[in-house]
Description:
Blueprint: E1 17-27, E2 33-41, E3 45-50, E4 59-64, E5 74-85, E6 91-100
Antiparallel strand pairs: 1-2, 1-4, 2-3, 3-6, 4-5, 5-6
Amino acid sequence: MSTASRNYDEKRDFIRMTVDCALTLRAVEGGRQYAGRCVNLSSTGAMVLFDEPPAMGQRLELHIEPRLALVPALDALVEVVRVLPAAEGGFEVGMSIIEMR
């Protein structure tokens, strides 16, 4: 389906799913641990809320453990591509998925 034929505002190549789940990240270099909340997810990226965000360009190992046992955990290598202040406090961090694991 081309993006021109969609009947909604989302014009991305990959549709984002709204989610609300905890996740953990570990820095590839240095091993620092982060905890956050995933707010949306697509096949190419994720938006995560953090109190203290990782740095722009940082590569991290992402792990999302779903609430339902029917859904497998998600493990991926990601890169921070955007950091913005969140309306509710903290930071919105955009991440690009480099590799699924």
